[in-house]
Amino acid sequence: MHIRVILPIIGDSLIDHVRSEVAEWAAPDTKVDAVVLERGTASIESEYDEALAAPGILDQIARAAEDDVDAVFISCFGDPGVHAAREIIDAPVVGGFEPAVLTALSLGEHVGIITVLPNVLPMLRSLARRYAIQDRIGTMRVIDMPVLGLEDRDLLLQRLEEQAVDAITSGEADVIVLGCTGMLGVAAELQERLAAAGMKVPVVDPTGAAVTWLESCVRLGVTPSRTTYLPPPAKDRSA
Amino acid sequence: MHIRVILPIIGDSLIDHVRSEVAEWAAPDTKVDAVVLERGTASIESEYDEALAAPGILDQIARAAEDDVDAVFISCFGDPGVHAAREIIDAPVVGGFEPAVLTALSLGEHVGIITVLPNVLPMLRSLARRYAIQDRIGTMRVIDMPVLGLEDRDLLLQRLEEQAVDAITSGEADVIVLGCTGMLGVAAELQERLAAAGMKVPVVDPTGAAVTWLESCVRLGVTPSRTTYLPPPAKDRSA
Amino acid sequence: MHIRVILPIIGDSLIDHVRSEVAEWAAPDTKVDAVVLERGTASIESEYDEALAAPGILDQIARAAEDDVDAVFISCFGDPGVHAAREIIDAPVVGGFEPAVLTALSLGEHVGIITVLPNVLPMLRSLARRYAIQDRIGTMRVIDMPVLGLEDRDLLLQRLEEQAVDAITSGEADVIVLGCTGMLGVAAELQERLAAAGMKVPVVDPTGAAVTWLESCVRLGVTPSRTTYLPPPAKDRSA
Amino acid sequence: MHIRVILPIIGDSLIDHVRSEVAEWAAPDTKVDAVVLERGTASIESEYDEALAAPGILDQIARAAEDDVDAVFISCFGDPGVHAAREIIDAPVVGGFEPAVLTALSLGEHVGIITVLPNVLPMLRSLARRYAIQDRIGTMRVIDMPVLGLEDRDLLLQRLEEQAVDAITSGEADVIVLGCTGMLGVAAELQERLAAAGMKVPVVDPTGAAVTWLESCVRLGVTPSRTTYLPPPAKDRSA
Amino acid sequence: MHIRVILPIIGDSLIDHVRSEVAEWAAPDTKVDAVVLERGTASIESEYDEALAAPGILDQIARAAEDDVDAVFISCFGDPGVHAAREIIDAPVVGGFEPAVLTALSLGEHVGIITVLPNVLPMLRSLARRYAIQDRIGTMRVIDMPVLGLEDRDLLLQRLEEQAVDAITSGEADVIVLGCTGMLGVAAELQERLAAAGMKVPVVDPTGAAVTWLESCVRLGVTPSRTTYLPPPAKDRSA
Amino acid sequence: MHIRVILPIIGDSLIDHVRSEVAEWAAPDTKVDAVVLERGTASIESEYDEALAAPGILDQIARAAEDDVDAVFISCFGDPGVHAAREIIDAPVVGGFEPAVLTALSLGEHVGIITVLPNVLPMLRSLARRYAIQDRIGTMRVIDMPVLGLEDRDLLLQRLEEQAVDAITSGEADVIVLGCTGMLGVAAELQERLAAAGMKVPVVDPTGAAVTWLESCVRLGVTPSRTTYLPPPAKDRSA
Q: Which of A207, C3, C163, D48 has the highest Cβ tally under 10 A?
């Protein structure tokens, strides 16, 4: 199986980290490769960034279709370009939000999403309503760190733990979902810290959830429905 | 008052028609000008088209902000780029969906939207859920004509009437909203035809609803909330 | 265009203030006149008051229909008699709630309504559910001042600011709607005070929203749907 | 126990029938008396009628409070004046909709309401949304007979059976609620006819449901909550 | 009328108390008897307990059907076995949740449920969603006492009062429902204490609500719908 | 990885088929074993059957916990015993409904579930509401074949195709979920038949979805949340 990771940003400083992280979650026989955008933004933290990233993502989706990959992971929790992508490729495509949150639904009643900045909260709440699963989202919170500052692992874990503990003890969250695909490699440790503090609450890593989700879809032999994702009519496009 | 119309397509064959139509709905002292995109697609009939159009729309939003316009109408029923736009301009911005449907809510219980092609239905239903007003949408239907074929006014009116009559008599719609801003200048006649057939049901023109909505917002002195539409953080963007 | 304002109370001490305020929001060529009730209550602050006011409101609606006005504003945030009125007049009719809240939906994610007394909160929440827009209402709060005590402008603004600041900083409101049509002439100043305190959040005046809403409807050529608002069958009525 | 029935219409031609029907549903030791309105309409078939009836209903509620009755049944399926009434009397008050529909919820998944005229459907759907139980209402239908024509028992039963059979066989209703308190004395026979046709589906009589509901509330010692139904502040009222 | 109470636990130490309490709520001419389970658990405080209790409950339902009782009360607030029971008996069956909460809906806007342990909260919230009435539940809270510790009446009342006062003053509850059928004989006193503290808020006893609910259903002549509760097909069963 | 399949019925005639089917979906290095119940019913087609099966399922869950399996699949689309099971084992547990339907949500807008008999529809709709995902379920339909008659593969496929085609062409379903885990080995062929008929719509096999779901959860290192699924307090249990 061949999974293509589209890191929907410009600049390739993060790409090796992301690819190796994805590969770690993937099954042994899954081939993983990763690409960045030729046009887009340095990170996605607003509707504005999402909109600017979309054409570059779709360029890469078209290439993935040509390369006949089995599945595509657009590595961003805002699911940028995901629905447009499904219109033009016959393979499962997910971002970070959908697989992580849907997985979480099978683990506890209310999902608590912890993301980076307040800027993205309205966007994530819009996604929850769009997907009609908002009644199961107990809280959405931020650690107030920009995507490009997440490499400070200690601070990241400390802030995540603070928010997770508060969300759990106030009864707002039964499952924690890391709300940014840039929060790499911390889910297990956060889960352990919570357990050590007496809170046996699962923590879902969005990258891991996306990779296993895509592998499941490929093994199930399913691709996007063509009654929801109709192929775009031919026309002049110069975007 | 100065309203800028962004026709979110490439090619300017429609721009005069749109500008004059908008001007007709506008108040006498409202200045209306219209622009098209420098990058985008020939029409918007899919999530794919919307995604490709968004950066070109945001180019024009930035220009509108520089030009200090009072309000912006992105003339497409799918509300493309609307939420991203609100992040970067201190003036009311609407597409076609939101003002038409919200206006319709004050006229009858269930709104019936009649749009062009099946391709856009999932997108419009996603908007309705995103805006959390889906319980008042009684039906969404299509006339099965592409945006660029709407100039056949007789056929357009005939198809609209067929769908409207069916929606009303089956109890699915109490107000009709024309679901494409390319359906110019037919709302009043459709309303008359329905009345002549014994159905006194209002028909909302999305262009008219958008223009009057923006004028209202300007007169009310309101602009997008900065707790929902936070200004995007500065970063490298090459989209 | 001729808009009739029905101030749904007995006693005409407020009528000049209301009429001039409405006229200020109205377009230059809109004629505004205002009437009070011949039977009703001194103010509306309960379901009980609303029920007692309704027949007097409908008397005035009948007169407005005879006078062939173009639109009617029932100047009360509880929308008293609005739905009954739409059954008997072929012109747009709104109260204060519907146009203000629907306008607010286009400005931010969650609407915060600040009204007078706790007595009216259940009534307003019932309206929100009736209109099926409750998921976008983030909070409803009171300043604990009766309608007939709102003339103390300083206190009114102080209390509104307290509630608005608290609603915004706690993340419950992105747009403020003044929840009583008796809160005249304070929206702009409240908006400025919030901006000065670092909260760029729009404040919607219900009187202004109603007037511009009605003007929009008249310009759009739409009137209440006769499949939702069926004409009442003839019968003996001695109310 | 003393239950007061308020028949919310003018003219007393129906009062004996209603009182005896209520008495039949009541427990042996329940005292039942019935009154009509001094001001109101001949029947209630629109928001307009409801609005005109409300002050006359509240007159009778005030009298019921003076008479220290234990509970009040406002005998109309549109629940006219019910919420205003609860603000001014310390005794349970119901109309026809609430007890019948809530009772039905314990008998099957989806409730089918069969009422008189299309005019009242939007009003009943508004009630269902206001009470936030709309997701359990499978269908609302009409027999197209006015309230004052229901005395043709054969025709009434035939029309009810037609609608009930259609609602059940199409999977829209698991429980039938008679949607007009003027449909007296036919629930049992309708239920038998349906059973004879192979549909073991309960039929809820709104008068019976209201009477037993009120008796239950009195026996439970509960009255309207004063945090929802606050006493109206004193003021000038001349309605 | 003959009501059978199924106390869905093993061991009969509580049965006399429950039977006499039920008898006190019942009408004078209602015969009440009570049974416990031959297989089950000592109390129900988890999904696990509910699952283990269900077959024993259904044994007793089968016996109740043979005994031709008129109605069955499964005396537990989690409604264990209720829906399965309705499939196999032609008589009204309720647990504690449904009648108490539906009764409460007619008394105030938001229901506050106060139950025993955190363990049962997800189960009760699942019931509320299953019944599609969750939007009217303002809060669910616990007193942190196990079912088998409720005999300490003073402590029980003190804890209930604490939670009720907090729920009411924070605006989360307008009606209190006791969320465990083991909280016997305290509703009236709790209601008095709240009134003495200035909160005229009704308190619904789930046992009383269930008994009067069942009596009402019997008097109304209604039994479970056979389109929702279809009789189970014959097959090998050795549970 | 070790997945235990609990076939929640008595009698082992189906167990080999189920085990081999599960093994086929599983990853190469996943160990699969399967057990049946020692007490229960021959198939599950009602709430009654579910209730009777639950204790036998929980017996097997306890054994699975002792055997330290990594995950448990309760092979029935009604998710019997799933929530109780999660309270007593520290490993992911799913039935057929949850993983199949959640997987489907990522493939198209509206899910169409095709199950066996009308008896189970209310139960499945209750699950959808309980999980708060009902707004994405477009239709639930039956093929009117009992679970124990599904071995007629031709008839099964024909009936499934009929229902699927009708659901898709009427716009009610964009993704098909097979609504019975007894419908083994037909998803791929149904999907092909639909594609051959011009409907490129994914078909989700509930067994495959459950197995890959569990494998994903194990790889993600997540287990049931202990704030939703609290361990049952110790007590006397003789069920």
A: D48
Residue E238 confidence (pLDDT) above 90 = no
Kindly determine whether residue D55 and residue C58, on different chains, have CB atoms separated by under 8 Å. no
**Closest-approach residue (CA) in chain C for A135:** C135
Q: What is the nearest CA distance from B109 to chain A, expressed in angstroms?
A: 22
What pLDDT sits at residue A148? 86
d(CA B48, CA B51): 5
Q: Mark which residues 20-59 of D lie under 8 Å from C by CB.
A: 39-43, 45-58
Is C132 found in the same domain as C105? yes
Residues B152 and B51 both lie in one domain: no
pTM above 0.95, yes or no: yes
pLDDT in tens, F30-51: 999 999 999 999 999 999 999 9
Residue with tokens 């709905």: B25
Mean pLDDT of E133-162: 96
Q: Which among F50, F88, F24 is positioned nearest to F224, based on CA atoms?
A: F88
* Contact flag D225-E174 (C-beta cutoff 8 Å): yes
Chains F and C touch (3+ CB pairs under 8 A): no
Is there a single domain that holds both residue F80 and residue F145? Answer: no
Instruction: Give E60-111 pLDDT, tens digit per residue.
Output: 999 999 999 999 999 999 999 999 999 999 999 999 999 999 999 999 999 9
Closest CA to F41 of E54, E49, E86, E123: E54
Tell whether B228 is covered by a domain. Answer: no
Q: What is the pLDDT of residues E105-146, one digit of tens each?
A: 999 999 999 999 999 999 999 999 999 999 999 999 999 999
D188 pLDDT band, cuts 50/70/90, is: very high
Instruction: Yes or no: say if D96 and D76 are a contact pair by the CB < 8 Å rule.
Output: yes
Q: From the list F27, F136, F213, which residue is nearest A132 (CB)?
A: F136
pLDDT averaged over every residue in chain C: 97
Q: Has residue D232 been placed in a domain? A: no
F118 and F46 in a single domain? The answer is no
Secondary-structure percent of chain D, ordered helix, strand, coil, rounded to 5: 45, 15, 40
DSSP E strands in C28-101: the ranges are: 31-35, 71-74, 93-94
A198 touches chain E (CB under 8 A): no
B220 touches chain A (CB under 8 A): no
Which domain CATH number covers F194? 3.40.50.12500
Q: Is B71 found in the same domain as B156?
A: no
Nearest to F87 among E48, E84, E118 (CB): E48
Whether the ipTM is more than 0.85: the answer is: yes
**Each residue of D38-65: pLDDT tens digit?**
999 999 999 999 999 999 999 999 999 9
Domain that includes residue F7, residue range = 2-95+209-220
Taking CA–CA distances from A39, the nearest residue in chain B reads B239
- Residue C227 within any structural domain of the chain: no
Q: CB neighbours of B148 closer than 8 A, spacing ≥ 6?
A: A235, B42, B43
**Total domains in the fold of chain E:** 2
Residue A226's identity, in one-letter code, is R
Does the beta carbon of F125 lie under 8 angstroms from any beta carbon of chain D?
yes
Count chain A–chain C contacts defined by CB atoms under 8 A: 6
Question: How near does any CA of chain E get to the CA of C131, in Å?
Answer: 15
- Whether the pLDDT of residue B33 is over 80: the answer is yes
Question: Are A172 and A214 in the same domain?
Answer: no
Q: Please answer yes or no on whether D87 and C53 come within 8 Å at the CB atom.
A: no
CA distances from D127 to C125, D80, D95, D121, D160 (A): 13, 10, 12, 10, 22
> Taking CB atoms and an 8 Å cut-off, how many pairs form between chains A and F?
163
Residues with pLDDT less than 70, chain F:
none
Chain C residues close to A126, C-beta within 8 Å: 109
